[in-house]
Amino acid sequence: MPHTRKPAVAGWFADEGDGFRLLGTRCTACASVFFPREDTHCRNPHCTGGSLEETPLSRKGRIWSYTDTRYRPPSPYVSNPELPWEPFTLIAVELAAERIVVLGQAAPGVTVADLTVGMEVEVVPGVLHEDAGTTWTIWHWRPTGVAA
Fold first, then answer.
1. Strand pairing of 134-143 and 4-7?
2. pTM higher than the cut 0.85
3. Is the dihedral of CA 60, 58, 15, 136 positive or negative?
4. Taking CA atoms, which of 32, 37, 106, 140 is between 20 and 30 Å from 8?
């Protein structure tokens, strides 16, 4: 049976392949950009407020920080305690144009040994997990110039 692809978090990213982008919001009054998206009010304390418009974010940025996960996080993190823990790498990326930092997992196969602060990375589609008939999608960060 084919799996249905479904975003793990609706409205945070769009498209597949080369068109894949994170989606944020931009305030029309002060031009502040938000991710995760903000849909009710501008979070800039110096802004009198404007409407918020969805905006695709930069596909590339530079590593601001990174770490690996060697143990299962405590609650409220959700994972199946019946399955063995599989470590993964987390990367904080400063987006090129927006100058905001976005956290995400590294693409499969990318470890902390492959990364350096300041390295250029790009956002790519990824899989969070699969269950009965559904593939839950998310974003990953991958060093530029590395094939999937």
1. parallel
2. yes
3. positive
4. 32
Note the pLDDT tens digit of each residue in 24-59: 999 999 999 999 999 999 999 999 988 999 999 999
Q: Are 3 and 132 in contact (CB under 8 A)?
A: no
Residue 132: exposure state from Cβ atoms within 10 A (0-12, 13-18, ≥19): exposed
Residue carrying structure tokens 């501008």: 42
Per-residue H/E/C for the chain: CCCEEEECCCCCEECCHHHCEEEEEEECCCCCEECCCCCCCCCCCCCCCCCEEEEECCCEEEEEEEEECCCCCCCCCCCCCCCCCCCCEEEEEEECCCCCEEEEEECCCCCHHHCCCCCEEEEEEEEEEEECCEEEEEEEEEECCCCC
Backbone phi, psi, residue 26, to 5° = -125, 135
- 105 close to 138: Cβ distance less than 8 angstroms: yes
Whole-angstrom distance between the N-terminal and C-terminal Cα of the chain?
Answer: 25
